[in-house]
Amino acid sequence: MSQWEVRMSNSKGLPYFFNKDTKESFWDAPSELSEEQVKSLPGADYLTGAGKAHAGQVRASHLLVKHQGSRRPASWKEENITRTKEEAIAILREYQAQISGSSKKFAELATVHSDCSSHTNGGDLGWFGRGQMQKPFEDAAYGLEVGKISDVISSDSGVHLVLRTG
Q1: 3-state SS track over 63-114
Q2: Residue 35, CB-side half-sphere exposure with 13 Å CA sphere
Q3: Which H or E run contains 58?
Q4: Widest pairwise Cα distance in the chain
Q5: What pLDDT was estimated at residue 135?
Q6: 9-13, 26-30, 112-116 — most confident range
Q7: Residue 3, Cα to own-chain centre: how many angstroms?
Q8: Which residues have a catalytic role annotated?
Q9: What is the spatial distance between Cα 150 and Cα 145, in angstroms, rounded to a whole number?
């Protein structure tokens, strides 16, 4: 039998089914699984508690600026991102100065400027646990106190400011 698990979509805040063998994901339960099998999948508690924290999880928002070295140098704003990593960091530093510790200003800037689809939610990525995010991002989120904002963090996606919200 395939290796299914339930994961939480960071962009939609909804659970989905992920096959670790084929790397496919689906919103609906795989037809080959019975209701009991679905309930016993790793992460099945997401099916009943969508949007709620589970033990060991944190909630964070981010403001992402991609650069030409990002794993996918394109976003909802730009089809082909050509800025250098140094330019992306400089842009984030400008946002950081404007934010000045304000979570409200953070969300405003993330809505307009973040290269992530989470921009529609003010950068909110929802609740996530260890192993669900890229390591540098995860380390930053878990290392912050609630309400605090990180310095610039670099990951395969680009450079971020991270706001711990829960």
Answers
A1: EEECCCCCCCCCCCCCCCCCCCHHHHHHHHHHHHHHHCCCHHHHHHHHHHHC
A2: 0
A3: strand 58-65
A4: 53
A5: 94
A6: 112-116
A7: 23
A8: 62, 116, 134, 157, 160
A9: 10
Which amino acid would we find at residue 60? Answer: A
Output the CA angle 4-126-2, nearest 5 degrees: 5
Work out the average pLDDT over 114-140.
92
State yes or no: pLDDT of 20 exceeds 70. Answer: yes
Separation of alpha carbons 43 and 121, rounded Å: 24
What whole-number distance in Å separates Cα of residue 64 and Cα of residue 115? 5
Token representation of residue 148 = 């605090």
Q: What token pair was written down for 74?
A: 């394109």
What is the Cα gyration radius of the chain?
17
Separation in Å, CA 160 to CA 13, 66, 73, 149 = 20, 9, 14, 10
Long-range contacts of 139-143 (CB under 8 A, 24+ apart): 141/58, 141/60, 142/58
